[in-house]
Amino acid sequence: DAMVIQNPRYQVTQFGKPVTLSCSQTLNHNVMYWYQQKSSQAPKLLFHYYDKDFNNEADTPDNFQSRRPNTSFCFLDIRSPGLGDAAMYLCATSRDEFEQFFGPGTRLTVL
Amino acid sequence: KNQVEQSPQSLIILEGKNCTLQCNYTVSPFSNLRWYKQDTGRGPVSLTIMTFSENTKSNGRYTATLDADTKQSSLHITASQLSDSASYICVVSLHSGNTGKLIFGQGTTLQVKP
After folding, report:
1. Burial of A62 by CB count in 10 Å (0-12 exposed, 13-18 middle, 19+ buried)?
2. With left for phi above 0 and alpha for psi between -120 and 50, is residue A62 left, alpha or beta?
3. What is the mean pLDDT of chain A?
């Protein structure tokens, strides 16, 4: 089945230790998004790739970076995680500005 | 300011009953409105998506309505099941170039009790 896959589903890291979250898709969508969702809050867009073009939201901290080596894969790198970065990280994809399909999310815990 | 407001914030109903969730938005220019269901600890799953010209759309026991004049939408759930317990999020897409920026509501948390 075509889908959005996120690995790992649960990630535990230590304060300040770099961590990478992975997203892959079999939908062949040209746009991929990363969202941060904290408990009982709406998802917050961090950045998105439109094809190879990277678009950063103005209020996304420099601590967060992303890579998209090909159409299918996109990575979220958190260079020095702080306690405030503990959250659910959602990857989504879309064909241009049509419906976004979300992955199951990665729950990040920072110790 | 582009905003999406949902009501109620939370709702408890008995299994088999119907319920209606509300969404008001002040988003311009409007592209489309979506309802997502998000189970605890999971990513949102799309239920319906409606463009400006669509008034209603159904997906099984879920029926969404849209009034673009009053900028209101509703999601009606018929014959609720225990598995309907989740957060329901109203999302409006802002027409912005090649990718529609999404404006999320805070969600309505629905609990269906036996």
Report:
1. exposed
2. alpha
3. 92
> Residues for chain A: how many in total?
111
Q: Is A97–B100 a contact, with Cβ atoms under 8 angstroms apart?
A: yes
Q: Is the pLDDT of residue B98 over 60?
A: no
pLDDT tens, A74-101? 999 999 999 999 999 999 999 876 788 9
Distance CA A20, CA A25 (A): 17
Judged by DSSP in three states, A11 sits in strand
Write out chain A residues lying below 8 Å of B5, CB-based. none
Return mean pLDDT, chain B. 92
Interface touch B43/A42, C-beta < 8 Å: no
CA distance A23 to A43: 16
Integer distance in angstroms from the first to the last C-alpha of chain B? 41
| pLDDT, tens digit (0-9, with 9 covering 90-100), for A5-23 | 999 999 999 999 999 999 9
Neighbouring-strand partners of residue A49: A32, A54
Contact criterion met (CB below 8 Å) for A97 and B98: yes
Distance CA A91, CA A101 (A): 8
Shortest CA gap A17–chain B (Å) = 24
User: CA-to-CA distance for B109 and B87, rounded, in angstroms?
Assistant: 4
- Average pLDDT for B81-91: 96
Rounded CA-CA distance A39/A9 in Å is 16
